[in-house]
Protein: Flagellar hook-associated protein 1
Amino acid sequence: MSLTQALNSAISGLNTAQARIAITSSNISNVNTEGYSKKIAGQETLTLDGTGAGSQIADIYRNVNEGLLREVRGELGKAGREQVRYEFFHRIQTLFGTTQSDAAISQRINDLADAFEQLGVTPDQNSPRIEAIESAIQVVESFEKLSSQLQDMRDDIDDQITDEVTTANALLSQIADLNTGIIRLKNLEQPTTELEDQRDQKLNQLSKIIDITTFSRSDGSIVIYSAAGANTLLDRTPNNLTFTQTAGFEPGTGGSGLSLGGVDITDTLRSGTIKGLFEMRDSEIPAINDQINELAGELRDALNAEHNKGTAFPPPTNLSGNRIVAGSDPLTATGAFRVAALDADGQLIATDSWADISLPTTPATVQGLVDAINSSDAGGYLTASLVDNKLVIEGQNGNRVSINEMDSEITTSDGRKQGMSHYFGLNDFIATVKRSDTMTSTAQSSSTTAINATASSFTISAGSGILVGGVTVNYTATDSLEDIRDNIRTALQGAGMTVADSEEAAFIVEDGNRFRLVLEYSANMTINDSGTLATKIGLTEDQPTLSGNMSVSAAIQNDPSRIVRGQLNADTYETSNAVVNPDTAIPGLVPLTPPPLSQTLTVSGAFTDVTINYDNETTLQDVADAINNSATLTDNNITAKVVFDSQIGGYKLSITDADGDAFYFNDSRLPNADSLTTILGLGINFGVHEGDNSAALSLSHTFERTDIDFEATDGLSGERTSLTDYAAGIVATAATKTQVAESTYEFQSGLVTDLSTRIQNEAGVNLDEEMSDLIIFQRAYSASARVISTVDELFDALLNAV
Structure:
């Protein structure tokens, strides 16, 4: 080797050592820089014509474990999803409170129960009434607050999705720019490690937002996919994600999804903050709203069912319904109810100021019921009418009005059975507008999978239009929600509705990531299902917005005395016409020709009807004995006795239910004057007693019931329990989900930290190693410098020798 070669080799060694010292210096200066990976300069022998000519820097590379990087990105996406879920579940728990919190909905209902319990003890005092009203207002306001704030959260989520999409698109653009820079440097044979570090940082940030996978090209660029390669986010240029915010959420509505190239990819997301946000917006929060709605509906129905059974004292001058009806609306009804005109003391205005209205009326419509009331004996003292499409019963000349539902049952459009007053909402405590021109199913997880209802049919009927008489819709066990919608449309078109109108009458709406079947018509509808479909899909007149649209009756707020106390008499009957001898035939009873002409007196109530036969030979004692000898009646504590009444100058019959339960009579001979009830004057002789607090006690017992049937909702199974226990279950479920979300988030965060630590241990800068390398490179630099110095001396010696 010549001196020149030796000099060149030494210079190359000097340059190599200098380059490696520079890289080591950069490593040391970036020891605390996030995302920085240790740079390693490879060193290789420099040859010239097969002869060693020193050394040179080979590739500058990073000591990065790509497998660990892929793993940490996957876990970052999971951690991002769980972080979002925890943050919003924590907000929900704060909104709901704990089961011990005074502001929790379960505690509000407990407070209402306490208020009604006190009201049941002292119903005549104003203070307990005010307390019950205020407690009820707090409950309905809590429902409204929960409903509105849950929807506000969905609005907040939409804002966050917008921000995350904007960030993701910015990251994709930055990664695309880094790709371009890496390709350029690689073509110039320049190091690309710093740009690769920056790109890895951007990829990590992106992976927390949306699940990604990457593919590396030979030119150093990468391609980014999501959903395991299903969606291309970045090739040579980025494909921007798009999202349109929803202009305000309401219960039962959905929002827009995430799109890529005009295609909705929401369902393909597997992890990331965007995935968690969509889950909370479209699944978790709507499910919680369903739970609140179920509780609100059952609370409303339970309280109103009891309140409509009673009457205030003094009775009100009018009763106004909450149900929107038309006179032509058909009614599916059975049993009978009692209506009476009373004075301020609860006494009958006259002996005939009351009437029992048998159901169904003729015709079996709302107008038929109105006409039946007005044409009855009570119709001379009160008036029934439709005002603003609501049933109103008003006393004439200042008379008071009272109703006893007895065993009346009117079937709602969704198959529930309610007493007459409850159905029309004549004496509701919790006011909501009832109507059935819109029917909505419960939320279904899919619109295309089979509902698995037993094959059968249902009939949709209404009081006007093509639905008069009913339209029958057939369905099979394999039908999906979309199939049912199409079946309804086909049936409506077969009845004469246009295709366009049928599509507006039956359609499916998205409720988050769930689906609801909606029926809309110009009149109130009734659904009669011969099978199980209506039950399976929960077709109901109650809307998803119910919990946010309840209030305490304005009439009760304005006049607390309208809270019911007692019941219109239907448990105590007496005859008003004297019988001289109770053991001889009742005079004037049914015609003598042709003898014997047998008639029936039917006793009805919450038991199997009991029929008592009578003819012109029947005595007063016979009637009493027939009642007392009936096992059905005595089992229900209904007894009769014959007593002498000096005021009427003879014997009379007294019939009572010791439990205070309602019962009534139907005389087959009516309206003839020789019927048993007319001859004896059998009926009630008072309306309601001031001291009667039976209805107030029944209201308080509502909260003790453990048989309220709650339907299954997402997150809570169906069960029979009490109002307070179900409310506590909602609060407890929210708390449990928060704890689970927190635990899962902490686990995922810990996993990300562990993986990041492993990556840092492998790819990060170790100061001890760098300082050791610095000494080695310094010595190499010094040695190369020494070689140069030695060669220089040799050159000097050579020149001097010449």
